[in-house]
Amino acid sequence: MSKRLKITIINLIFISCLISIYFFVYVPNKKTNDRVITIIQNKKSTIVAINYPHTPYQILNKDIKKYVNDIYDDFKEEYDSFISLKGKSELNIDYTYYVSEEGYISITLYTYIDSSLMNHPIKEIKTFVFDPQKKSYLTLQDLIKEKKKTTDEILEILRKKYGEGGYQNLLTSEYLKSLSYSIDHEKVCIFIPSYQNQENPYLIYLPLNHFHLNKKKEIKNIPVYSIKQNVIDPKKKVVALTFDDGPSKYTKKILKLLRKYHVTATFFVLGNKVTMYENTLKEMLQDGHEIGNHSYNHKLMSTLTEKEIMNQIQQTQSIIKEKLGYTPTSMRPTYGSVNQKIRNIVNMNIVLWNVDTLDWKLKDPKRIAQRGMKVKDGDIILMHDSKARTEKALSIMIPKLLKENYQFVTVGELEEVKMLREKFE
Ligand code: ZN
User: Fold this and answer.
1) Residue 25 alpha carbon to ligand 1 centre in Å
2) What dihedral angle (degrees, nearest 10) is formed by the CA atoms of 119, 125, 126, 131?
C-alpha cells in the first residue's frame, strides 16, 4: 500500500470516528425544542397554575399531557362550581427537568391541590425517566449496576426507618421496576410509597455511581453582563411595561419588537422556567431589561406559610443568580395578591400595576392595545409574555405611546425617577 493511500485511509477512519462521536455523544443531549407549557387562570371559584415541560419526544409529551389533563379535568369538575367564602380552591402543577450525561430525560411532576373542602392539601408526585435513543422509559431496575448490593442498601435504609419486616419480601425485581424515581446531577431519588398511599412517599437518596449514570461535567461560565443603561429624563413622562408568567416561546418575539423601538421593560419570571429559557433571559439582560421575581411556581402566595413564601422567593433568586449571575431586586406577587405577611418577609421592591391590559382574557390585540394606551405619567402596565397576542398588541401600543413622548422605563428606573422628582420639587 502506498504511503499516501495509507494516510488517506487513516484520515477516513479518523473522520468517521469523529462523525460517530458527534452523533453518539451530542445528539442525545440536544434539547433545542424544549419549552414549558403554562396555564394560569384566575376564575370565580378557582385559581390554577400549571407548568409542564414540552420535550422533543412525542411519546413522552403525550404521556405527560395526558397525566396533567386528567388531573386538570378532575379538578375543574370537582371545584369549578364550588364557591366558598373561605377562599378559592387552588390547583398547582410544577415540574423539575434534568438531562443526564447519557442523555436520559428525568421529569418529575408535583401536583398540589388545596381547597376549604379538605383538611390538608393533596400532594402528588409523578416521575418519568426517558431514554431518547430507545424511545422508551427506564425503570430503576434498568439502571442499577449491582442489583444485590443496591437492593441490600435500600433494605438497610428501610429497616432503620420502619424496623424489621414489611419491606423484606417486597424488594423483588418486580417491585424495583414499579418504583418511581428521579435523577439529578448528583443523585437518584427513590420514592417509596407509604402504606395505601396515605402519607407522602418516603424518599431515599443514592449516589449516581450505584447506577449506569455518569456525573455530568459541570460547565461553569457565569457571564458578566454589561447591562445597558438607559438615558432617562426625569422631567419627561415615563411609563413602565411589565410582563408576568414567562418566559415562554413568545418572549423572543416580544424582545425583538422592543429592540426595534429601543424600548426597555420588566419581566417578572417564574423560577421553574429559568433553566429552560436561559438564553431568552440572557437576551433580556443584554438588551437592558429588568428581570423580576414572580415566585417559583405561581402558587397563590397570600395563603402560604412564611417558610413557603420564603422558599418561593429564594429558589427563584438562586436559580437566576446561578444561571445568569444576576440578582433581581423587584418582586411581583402572584395574582397581584399581597398581604402584610408577604411585605414583612420579602425584602424586595414589591411591584403591582395601575393598568391591566387584560391580555390574559381579551382575544383581540386591538382591544388589548386600547387598554394599554390609556395611561398617564408614572403608570405601570400589566401584560403577559405567555400569549401570542401580546406581541401584536405591543406593536400597536408602543409607536403610539412614543409619539405621545412617553419614555419606557423598567420598574427599577421608575423608582429612581420618582426619587429624583421628589428631590428637585
Ligand atoms: Zn402571574
Assistant:
1) 39
2) 170
Q: Which helix (H) or strand (E) holds 409?
A: strand 407-409
Buried b or exposed e, range 174-187, using 16+ CB within 10 angstroms: eebeebbbbbeeeb
Instruction: Render 90-118 in DSSP notation, one character per residue.
Output: EEEEEEEEEE-TT--EEEEEEEEEE-TTS
Q: Which of 289, 294, 298, 384 is catalytic?
A: 384
Give dist(CA 30, CA 21) in Å, integer: 14
Rounded CA-CA distance 1/5 in Å is: 7
Residue 334 CA, ligand 1 centroid: distance in Å? 5
pTM: 0.77
Task: Tell me how far apart the alpha carbons of residues 309 and 321 are, in angstroms, rounded to a whole number.
Answer: 18
Q: How far does the centroid of ligand 1 lie from the alpha carbon of residue 268, in Å?
A: 8
* DSSP per-residue string spanning 128-177: EEEETTTTEE--HHHHBSSHHHHHHHHHHHHHHHH-SSSSTTT-SHHHHH
Known catalytic membership, residue 262: no
Query: Which of 94, 244, 359, 385 is an active site residue?
Result: 244
Tell me the CA–centroid distance for residue 173 and ligand 1, in Å.
44
The pLDDT tens digits along the chain (425 residues) read 555 555 554 454 444 444 433 333 333 333 445 788 889 999 999 999 999 999 989 999 999 999 999 999 999 999 998 888 788 999 999 999 999 999 999 999 999 999 988 888 888 999 999 999 999 999 999 999 999 899 889 888 888 887 776 666 676 778 888 889 999 999 999 998 877 666 778 899 999 999 999 988 766 655 555 556 677 898 999 999 999 999 999 999 999 999 999 999 999 999 999 999 999 999 999 999 999 999 999 999 999 999 999 999 999 999 999 999 999 999 999 999 999 999 999 999 999 999 999 999 999 999 999 999 999 999 999 999 998 999 999 999 999 999 999 999 999 999 999 988 887 76
Instruction: Return the C-alpha cell found at 295.
Output: 415566585
3-state secondary structure of 95: strand
Q: Indicate the angle between helix axes 251-260 and 388-403, nearest 10 degrees.
A: 20
Residue 114 annotated to the active site: no
| Other CB atoms within 10 Å distance of the CB of residue 126 | 18
Please report, as a single letter, which amino acid is at residue 267. F
Q: How far is the CA of 261 from the centre of ligand 1 (A)?
A: 26
